[in-house]
Predict the structure of CinA-like protein.
Amino acid sequence: MKAEIITIGDELLNGQVVDTNSAWIARHLGALHIPVIHMTSISDKRHAIKQALRQAEERADVIIMTGGLGPTRDDVTKVSVADYFGTTLVHNEAVLRHVEAIFRRAGRKNMPAINIGQAEVLANATVLFNDVGTAPGMAIERDGKYFAFLPGVPFEMKFLMENRVLPRLREVYKSDVFIYNTYLLTVGIGESHLAEQIGDIEDALPPYITLAYLPKIGMVRLRFTAGGTDMEALTTLTNRFKEQVVERVKDHVVSVDNRSFEEVLVHTFTRKDVTLSTAESCTGGSISAQITAVPGASGMFQGAAVVYSDQAKMDVLGVLPDTLTQYGAVSEPTVKEMAEGARRVFGTDYAIATSGIAGPGGGTETKPVGTVCIAVSGKSETRTQTFHFKNDRAINIERTVIAGLTMLWNILK
């Protein structure tokens, strides 16, 4: 059983929008043991849609297509699919009432006439009612193959996948083969160095167990994937190899499941019953945003101070004027006072402080763009460190966030 994902939209091809739908769909199909063998992004053109369907039908059993189901002129998926399957579009009164109800729930009494067209569906399709948007999905099953046509809006696509498509696939496509995935997350070690450290363990893996490296800035997630008919044996053997990796690089392992770094930190703070605050200059609140995006963070995160100017550093956090004069805003003495000031102001057990030159301007000969100072303050000590990143502002900020969280983890554990 194989799947293909087709995403439609000129905005995907010209780089205006990033295709997140394919990755999400692939993960959820994989959980059903349906591997995705091909992903295609195509333009809003009828010939491109029909060609993509023709090619997908030749090589896949499950074809998921997203995009082009809206009410505007460039939404041509329905007419293209109707042409491909040799069918017509028919008015579906139940769909129209459903769309009208969505407008009423949104407090809009009059539905635009253009939305009436969304009640036109494929004559030979099963309608996938969309409770979170006005564009219904459609599904066609023929010759042992399953086609699903879904809106391109991510939250609408996810609703229809979770509530309409995946339940049907679970009914129809059952496999005797089990797929087992297990993860671990490392920080503070690069992908190449990590691969060198665990190369002999990877070489010893049997053919039915694979190891994938999933690097991001400042961290690498490892995924073990095993496939076979004996789930218990797969799980036992895969976890045995995973435990070997954990033991080998234990100083860098922060999670042995699929949680994010921030989730691990929030859980650890909560378990230890300690609190956190941040004092951010160059990161502009990015660290606190990462932490507070995790459910339950309110129990351990007390507050954040974004102090861009020297005056704010002095007024809000109590940084000494002499420290700024002698060492500058981007210095370890300054971030030390910022972190300790945040702990004092917010009454927390720990605090992170950042100050740096994110770029593209502002650098000097002694402190070029990419120079960042970070401090982490706890009850017994304050640690500081200077980093030298590159010239990309967004990446410098992201690296600073991860570096700060890694320093926090190291002092916390």
Remarks:
- The chain has a mean pLDDT of 95.
